[in-house]
Amino acid sequence: MLDYKLTKFENGLKVITAPLSNTKAVSVFVLVKTGSRFEKEEENGIAHFLEHMFFKGTKKRPKSVDIARELDSVGASYNAFTGEEYTGFYVRVESSHFDLGLDILQDILYNSLFGKDEIAKEKGVILEEINMIKDLPAAYVEYVMKELLYGSKPLGRMITGTRETVSKFSRDDIESFKKRFYQPENMIVAVAGGNDPSTGSGQANWLEKIKNKFGEIEKLKPEGFEKIEESQTKPELKIFNKATDQAHFILGFRSIKRTDERRPILKVLNNILGATMSSRLFSEVREKRGLCYYISSDIADFQDTGFWGVGAGVDIKRIAEAIKVILEEFGKIRKEEVSDEELKRAQDNLKGHLYLGLEESMAVAQFLAEQEMFWEKIDDPDQVVSDFQKVTKSDIKKLASDLFRKEKLNLAVVGPFERDSPAGEEFQKILERYR
Description:
It comes from Candidatus Berkelbacteria bacterium RBG_13_40_8. The chain is an alpha+beta fold.
């Protein structure tokens, strides 16, 4: 049983505190309900750009090195990340340095300078990040798939933005986006870790200090995002032509949204098919046939839609063979129930992965914050495990039958191919033959 307390301040900010025993570390995590899908077209990449700029200097700590030096001096780990639907910031410190971690997070989020020189320099950094992603086919194929699924909608764009959009960002643009989304009602502060008796650090003390830092921030109504209306009726293919020595592809189906009650079933199904080195796809495609070096399946779910797919890197001459083999595995799990052994192995894997992951304070803070943000309720880890254990073989077969359908099938490819070429036509025919 995970011990935690959820508190809501008058300005709308939610705070989750979770004292943990047997650890001297404490993690402070701020989760903001914004990301690339909240951007206007001309803003593409600004959520990610803003995340970077928060570490470039504040009134109290004018340079990025000032922020880094303070945290490094106490052995802290710290970072931030931007996704489609949320942005996160965290500091993990020895528990006696809780005040420092909290102070720096509040400082960067509400007192950043956003200096023009720093903005100009960071544009160069992010433009190189964009170049790096485009030079990594295994990474870029994810964006090819997003564009195939969601087109010009915000979900179909690169989180980093494009060279065109990033180059035009101004200080006013950054300030405007921050004001629209970095509001108390749109944020959760989660603290998890050990108490420090010497400083009085503990759950009540954490709450008081968080209220002093975040409790007076002005309450404004945050904006929403453009929802996805799906209308796919046949298999779709998108190819990004690039001279590579290996073909990279993602093959999968439109799937369920994040809060769908069938999510535990999908997690078990995903584990059986491609999430581990003993999964069906890894065993069949790599170990048995030697078709690839890497292959794995994953879930990309959002508030209103989702995608489940398999990614692999294969010999250019054998990509068609690999696609056919994977489609055969999709057909098998639709038509035949998995074995008792496979089901138990997947359930135990998910159980172990969850419990082992929650041994670390930052993972606990993120686990609690994400549930509260998107489900508006928090399930104890034991409940999550119980949901996995309740999944039956017939549940998996039914979900596979519902999702693994021809009209939901999509293939994204990065490699030396053209859409209107014999190879492209062959890929399309393979998809059309899927039953």
